[in-house]
Amino acid sequence: VKVAVCVKVVAPRTPLHLDPATSRLVPTGAGVLNGLDRNAVEEAVRLRERVGVDEIVVVAVTDSANLVPVREALAMGADRAVVVSDDPVAGSDLLAVSDVLASVLALEEPDLVLLGGQSDDANGAVMPAALAERLGWPVLAQAVALVVEGDVVDVDRQTETGYESLRTTLPCVVAVADGINVSRYPTLKGRNDARRKPVALLALADVGLGADAVGPGGSGTVVFALADPPVRPEPLRLDGPTAAADLLAYLVERELVR
Amino acid sequence: MRLLVVCEVRDGAPSTDSFALVSHAASLGDDVGALVFVPTADELVAALGGAGARRVLAVEHEAAATSTAARVDAVALLCSRQTFDGVLFPASVRATDLAAALAVRLGAGLNWDLTDVRVADGALRATRPILGDATLADVGWKGDGPALALFRPGSIARVDVEPVPAPTVEVVDVEPHDTWGLVSVTTAGAEPGAESGESAGPRLDEADVIVAGGRGLGTSDGLALVRELAEVLDGVPAVSMPVVSQGWAPYSMQVGQTGTIVKPRLYVACGISGQLQHRVGMERSGTIVAVNTDPTAPIFTFCDVAVVADLNVVVPQLVELLRARRAGAAG
Predict the structure, then answer these.
(1) Which pLDDT score is estimated for A11?
(2) β-strand pairing of A152-159 with A162-169
(3) What residues of chain B, 209 to 228, have a C-beta less than 8 Å from chain A?
């Protein structure tokens, strides 16, 4: 089984700001590996420990030269990385990025694609199914347990109303939720090994795409403007021995209790 | 403006979010269709007409009742036969997969996590909170395909629109294919009419009152306090992510960015600090009451009532007061 893990480089979890002119993030320090993609890498490494995996390849699409997050995935146990790094990628939306990822995967021909169920910066959970549709494969989103036996894939997943268990066969796309595992921190040896693992840097042309496939031109959505949300007024502050009684009075007054 | 709302059906009725989205769409467009995936739409027609749907479109084929892949197929075929300016979805795990796959199939733009939609200069425009809801983005669509839009659960309020007494009912003549071939292994616990394999339970995303506990509960026993308060408030108990990570509560109880996004009339947060992950899931609630011993807890910056106290003291007191009040009312 060959596993590809698609990872996204996201802005670190510090206060983020947008450039009103371009509607893009103002860089706030180096990007990091998206949290749930870390769980996806972890699951690939655990799969290797459980059932044997021939190869784990990390796939990323970025407009930056920052390879630290990709090296992090390699340090966790992935074997090599393919990074499409090209300026026109900036400003790409779901349609464009899924196109680039699918183009890389068409060359790599993995049996299983893993990725995080959503990204820290976009909060969308839309990439897994978009990518699966491009590949013509099934998608199993929000996975909290993954078992691969032969070419049979079993996933327990979370939905709004609880868990469900689904089965399909390889090849398929599995998007992990945060309950699936606790990701490891790379060891010192892992980090040392990662420096020698191959990272292929590709341009769009290398995966058969033109600049018009990405960026605003390859995207189906547009951001017109940004604004501040309405501010909530200062809260009513309750403390001391009468706090519970005061709270009840507040709730009764607003008819929030019967 | 021709709009299609892809509805979810729960217990034989349109879900709260579906109903609200149909009514919102009806306030924007003169031709609003409500699409349902059910063996027969008869029992839904009155409700959807009440929300302002001119047309009820039903995909009755059994593959679409359970398979998201078949739904992608069905909606794509429908969009090839009829022109829609927008196709709107209340978000759920399944609807998100459906909308994202459809975007690629149709080559159409998809905006997600939307909290509002309107018409400006003859085109759809929408609002999407970003950066942990610190900024509101005004977003739109381009290209030839229909504007695909996923709405954050609980974000669209029901609009009072002129009911349509007798919407036309169209059975969509498609033979959708389940190309994904996902087999549901567990069906135990599923309610009749529920989507395959899903278990029943109190629904957080449709709750009127929610009492949630966080890391500040201290131990798994602390959850009993949350359940008690939820019970006397006729509400649903919930937790924040750390409580699920500790194994004290199931994921189905989790409110937050990676859990359920809620919008109850009253949200009581006990021992929850208010990390971004949690905030995104609940900050659109009507009235937010936060109980925390730490006066600098972030949650105190986005609540209506800040109770700076030990939840182990205040919550039992409040439970007692509520019980006494109820007993008094009954007597």
Answers:
(1) 77
(2) antiparallel
(3) 209
Chain A residues in contact with B142 (beta carbon < 8 A):
219-222
Q: Mean pLDDT over residues B255-279, rounded?
A: 90
Beta strands B183-184 and A162-169: pairing type?
Answer: antiparallel
**What mean pLDDT is predicted for residues B47-58?**
96
CA distance B2 to B298: 43
Report the predicted TM-score, pTM, of the whole model to 2 decimal places: 0.81
Residues in Cβ contact with A253 at an 8 Å cutoff, skipping those fewer than 6 apart: none
What pLDDT score does B196 carry?
Answer: 35
Q: CA-to-CA distance for B199 and B196, rounded, in angstroms?
A: 9
Helices (H) and strands (E) counted in chain A, each on its own, are 6, 15
Q: Do B105 and B72 form a contact (C-beta atoms < 8 A)?
A: yes
CB A79 within 8 A of CB A5: no
Using only the alpha carbons of chain B, give its radius of gyration: 21
- CB B297, CB B290: distance < 8 Å: yes
Half-sphere exposure in the Cβ direction for B13 (13 Å, CA): 9
Bridge-partner residues for B139, per DSSP?
A223, B126
Nearest to A75 by CA among A228, A195, A179, A252: A195
> What's the CA gap between B330 and B20, in Å, rounded?
35
Say yes or no: B150 contacts chain A, CB-CB below 8 A.
Answer: yes
**Quick one: pLDDT band at residue B175, thresholds 50, 70, 90?**
confident
Cα separation values, B210 from A207, B231, B244, B300, B307, Å: 49, 10, 17, 18, 17
Inspect the interface and report whether the beta carbons of A163 and B234 lie closer than 8 Å: no
Nearest chain A CA: its distance from B13 CA (Å) = 16
Q: Residues near B185 by Cβ (< 8 Å), separated by ≥ 6? A: A154, A165, A166, A167, B197
ipTM, two decimals, is 0.87
**What's the token pair of residue B59?**
């995909």
Q: Of A119-128, B73-82, B266-275, which range is least confident?
A: A119-128
Q: What is the mean pLDDT of each run of 10 residues along chain A (258 residues)?
A: 95 66 67 93 95 94 87 96 91 92 97 93 88 96 94 88 86 93 93 96 94 90 83 87 93 89
Q: How far apart are CA B148 and CA B97, in angstroms?
A: 12
- What strands lie across the sheet with A221-227, from one edge to the other? A221-227, B135-141, B123-130, B116-120
Most confident of A228-242, B16-30, B180-194: B16-30
Residue A47: both structure tokens together: 């799969």
Residues B160 and A115: their CA atoms lie apart, in Å, by 42
Q: Touching check for B244 and chain A: CB below 8 Å?
A: yes
- Looking from the CA of A167 toward its CB, the CA atoms found within 13 Å total 9
Cα A71 from Cα B218, distance rounded (Å):
37
Nearest to A237 among B135, B194, B308 (CB): B308
User: Residue A121, Cβ neighbours under 10 Å: how many?
Assistant: 19
Query: Per-residue pLDDT for B199 more than 50?
Result: no
* Distance (Å, whole) CA B262 – CA B255: 7
